[in-house]
Amino acid sequence: MEVNNTEAKKLFNKNFLLMLQGSLFSNFGDILYSIAIGYYVYNKTGSEAMMGIFTSISMFVTMFLSPITGAIVDRISRKAVIIGMDAIRGIIMLIIGFLCLNNNLDIGTLISFTVIISLSNVMFRPAIGTVLVDIVPKKDFVQANSITTGVLSVIDLISKGISGVLLVYVGVGQLIVFNGISFIFSAFTECFIYIPKTPKQGTKVSIKIIFMDVIDGLKDIMSIKALKFLFSVAIILNFFVAGIFSLFLVFTTQKGYSLEQYGVLISTFSLGSLIGALFVSLFKIPDNKRHPIMCFSFLGFGVTFIISLMSNNFYITFIFIIISAFFNSLSNMILNSSMMLLMPNDKRAAILGFIMASSTGGTALSTLTYGFLAETFPIYIVGTIGMLIAIIPIICMFTNKSLKEAVSNVTK
Questions:
Q1: Are 217 and 350 spatial neighbours (Cβ–Cβ below 8 Å)?
Q2: Burial 219-246 (b: 16+ CB within 10 A, else e)
Q3: In sequence order, what are the residues at sequence separation of 6 or more whose Cβ sits closer than 8 angstroms to the Cβ of residue 1?
Q4: How many beta carbons lie within 10 A of that of residue 376, not counting itself?
Q5: CA 230 distance to own-chain centroid
Q6: Rounded distance, CA 319 to CA 28, Å?
Q7: Distance CA 98, CA 100 (A)
Q8: Is the pLDDT of residue 270 over 60?
Q9: Distances (CA, A) of 38 to 6, 8, 53, 153, 240
Q10: d(CA 110, CA 108)
């Protein structure tokens, strides 16, 4: 018998715990991989622009293919996609790690493997992103989402906190091998998850049908006013803000911080995110308070992050990154949960694909822009200007009636 959302009687059911466990191991390895590869490219080339180009590859793949892969995922087994893509990424990363250990990894080869990994990611994300809402009760979804984010924030905190030390004393190749093992283990644990079928799963798949599903997904976004507004805002925010996070190693280097301090600062953002997720998990936010809390948190993130960028004192940067991460986590917890519940069940992956494409596209362009500008200007100046511009659409969120109504009534 197919299990739907109303049949998930309790929050901490077997499927939720198994999905959480799989995400834990794959994310731990993934974070170490991204940090190790970023360091490898920057250390190998010494170019901020090259680092920006390399980081943006997976983003552009996501931007162009997410709507298509989202439509495909709506019609095939999400479980097969989740297991298969984790296994593929694990194998590829083992190959990259061993090549690095034997000093046979050049930038061209790394870019080729990155494209393959990115193609796997773009299939995996809409599949895993639509599962949680189907395996926990609807009334507990915001809490489940915050718990998942909280656990992943702990992993962020641990992995990023030790990344600097591991890079110095263990090495890039060993970290990438460990990442591959983590993905393969994650694929194994995901074999035991029961994932309910989507309404379209098992139906016919063709180029024409997928194309029509993509068009329908875009129409649904345009027909739901709150999603239409968020679709536009996501592009703007990601373009003006995301680049600084993709090139955070460059920021810390220009500030004169050590590699160990870089590891501390990126783990600090995870600590703030964890506190925000715990807040949502422990304190149920009343429906009528969701919208103002979300908007004020976005604004608080912008102001405090600017302070952290402008400071030349490591400890001041440390404190305000924690505060900004808390506000960012709190606002995104409310926003992302509301968006997922607003999406029609039979088109959820397709719509999610479009939203991923818009936000990732903004991030990719932002990373490229920040990378090239960092060749001429201090990146903290570029980041501060970008954050000031981003505050404009944040202010618009306060006055958008459709967003307010959607966020306040989504769990009813």
A1: yes
A2: ebbeebebbebbbebbbbbbbbbbbbbb
A3: none
A4: 8
A5: 16
A6: 24
A7: 5
A8: yes
A9: 43, 41, 11, 20, 21
A10: 5
Radius of gyration of the CA atoms of the chain, in A: 20
Give the separation between CA 110 and CA 115, rounded to whole angstroms.
Answer: 9
Give the burial class of 336: count Cβ atoms within 10 A of its Cβ; 0-12 exposed, 13-18 middle, 19 or more buried. middle
Does residue 51 contact residue 250 with C-beta atoms inside 8 Å?
Answer: yes
Look-up: residue for tokens 């903004």? 362
Residue 1 has pLDDT above 50, yes or no: no
Is the model more confident about 185 or about 336?
A: 185
Q: Please determine, for residue 219, whether its predicted confidence score (pLDDT) is greater than 80.
A: no
- Looking at residue 197, the DSSP 8-state letter turns out to be P
Q: Quote the tokens at residue 382.
A: 């570029």
**Contact (CB, 8 A) for 398 and 238:** no
pTM of the model: 0.64
DSSP string, 320-343: HHHHHHHHHHHHHHHHHHHHHHHS
